[in-house]
Amino acid sequence: xxxxxxxxxxxxxxxxxxxxxxxxxxxxxxxxxxxxxxxxxxxxxxxxxxxxxxxxxxxxxxxxxxxxxxxxxxxxxxxxxxxxxxxxxxxxxxxxxxxxxxxxxxxxxxxxxxxxxxxxxxxxxxxxxxxxxxxxxxxxxxxxxxxxxxxxxxxxxxxxxxxxxxxxxxxxxxxxxxxxxxxxxxxxxxxxxxxxxxxxxxxxxxxxxxxxxxxxxxxxxxxxxxxxxxxxxxxxxxxxxxxxxxxxxxxxxxxxxxxxxxxxxxxxxxxxxxxxxxxxxxxxxxxxxxxxxxxxxxxxxxxxxxxxxxxxxxxxxxxxxxxxxxxxxxxxxxxxxxxxxxxxxxxxxxxxxxxxxxxxxxxxxxxxxxxxxxxxxxxxxxxxxxxxxxxxxxxxxxxxxxxxxxxxxxxxxxxxxxxxxxxxxxxxxxxxxxxxxxxxxxxxxxxxxxxxxxxxxxxxxxxxxxxxxxxxxxxxxxxxxxxxxxxxxxxxxxxxxxxxxxxxxxxxxxxxxxxxxxxxxxxxxxxxxxxxxxxxxxxxxxxxxxxxxxxxxxxxxxxxxxxxxxxxxxxxxxxxxxxxxxxxxxxxxxxxxxxxxxxxxxxxxxxxxxxxxxxxxxxxxxxxxxxxxxxxxxxxxxxxxxxxxxxxxxxxxxxxxxxxxxxxxxxxxxxxxxxxxxxxxxxxxx
Length: 686
Hints:
Elements: E1 3-7, E2 13-17, H1 21-29, E3 30-31, E4 36-37, H2 43-60, E5 64-66, E6 71-73, H3 84-93, H4 100-107, H5 111-124, E7 128-131, E8 135-138, H6 140-145, E9 147-150, E10 153-157, H7 159-168, H8 175-186, H9 196-210, H10 214-225, H11 228-231, H12 246-251, H13 253-256, H14 260-271, E11 274-277, E12 284-288, H15 290-299, E13 304-305, H16 307-316, H17 328-338, H18 344-348, H19 351-363, E14 371-372, H20 373-390, H21 396-413, H22 426-444, H23 448-451, H24 458-468, H25 475-482, H26 484-505, H27 507-520, H28 537-549, E15 556-560, E16 564-566, E17 569-571, E18 576-580, H29 628-645, E19 646-651, E20 659-660, E21 666-667, E22 672-678
Parallel strand pairs: 12-18
Antiparallel strand pairs: 1-2, 3-4, 5-6, 7-8, 9-10, 11-12, 13-15, 14-22, 15-18, 16-17, 19-22, 20-21
Helix pairs in contact: 1-2, 1-8, 2-4, 2-5, 2-8, 2-10, 4-10, 8-9, 8-10, 16-21, 19-20, 19-29, 20-26, 21-22, 24-25, 26-27, 26-28, 26-29, 27-28, 27-29, 28-29
């Protein structure tokens, strides 16, 4: 391994190092169009390849040596690398001489966790960027310069360019790259970076270069000869997926309260991580618990898809597909288009509009009337999101109609609790006109003349995609895509209504949010420079606790596109799957006194949410909510605005929350409040 000492900008000595073989193997096998490390053949072969990379890195650090018969430690001194040192310690501890194949197979079962760790380390170096859905791609800096550059990192050319040059320009690579070529060959990685014609053309050259490294040959032989059937311990006999009994449904207090979230959590405690619920067509297999959350986050993309349960719903809107129903490369591509319009910056740059619109809605609360909590929060967030992301200002009646039509369509086509003709009633036909009116307003407001000199919004990004690739984003899909943020805003509105409920229910929290708000608004409306994490610390933790106790979307509905085995259960292909990622949020093993509303559990002293697999407020896997940071800042800003201006009280004062479980979780229509006092006057409209 090439190492040297350089001077940092501060004048301190720092060790400059080259990327490890394992890190560059990840970069070579990272599929640009899929956004993740692809296994062209078997997972086991790829895992063995990465286990071999760790051993080869130890060889380059002069810690181990090997032949076909034995792998020996020649220097047990730690390398200082948090990935390599645990492996070195384990190998050094073993008293019985072991073959390279033994160690490859020993480390391979944990290689997927190791790959995830390496990916995150590459993000920390600034080489990769990470999307919340579990997608990785090269950073703009690497794409622009073709170089890996960062603190403590020896500047070097991007690995795919080096390997391609070695294969096609007949340049003699250095030993590091020779080792990479051989390892990439044995774990079937070349299809990730070469097309079929290139691979065929380069095969002779690949074999020649791979034969130049004797140590690498020993490891490659170990990887190639490894057999997962003999390497892994014999698995127990597959168990039948347990079914939730009728008595469980009848006895559940949570289910009688319409609290499906807690019911699933209770069933997880009773039946374990995999169980079957009745209903949902032929029934649904539930995956629940911290281990299942981690499995879905890492492996779900290979077995689960989203399209099936959304097809009929999308047809009702006249579209063939949407970002919610796409998987794989198409979903990754669409996420990149959606990213700017749903980012935190999209809220930060429009805080003045968000506060203005929020005050307009608050102004309608001041006549002493009782306010319908859920509906008013839908209107508040709906008005804001419509203007911020689509640059339209629809009438409240139009937003209400869009909401009603969407909810009816979800109940019919996704939840399947209503017959299809219920979307064709006279009232629904009137609401459909409201949907068409939203389409019309968006089109009218996004002509070249109308958009001149105005900040770019979410719709502009979609129109650009349509013009550049009308096959990928045709007109038939475009209009429903326009509504993506408005539909998402309905879920945000429900979360806001839960936040108001908890703020009124917990006066001490109300005081702390109000105090934070008063500081922020003291000199006028805060800008993005004022709304720092320190400035909104408690309100942010408050919102996180609201999302923990009151998830608006408690499960992901998926279809098993391939059969899979988890925790000794075999789940057949075409099974209906419910990924109950929120089940952990009600368990004392993850959150102390889990039923208690306690924002301080997210503070630096406790950080209960950082337990692996415990807290996924925006879902998990490839369809993790793209607008998570948008949503957090939007909710925090609205709550601060309300707390600064208003002292609210519930009607009646001792109101106990009742839930509406369909088509999403929200307070039911009985949740109401009124303005008890105006803490700070609303500024007069300009």
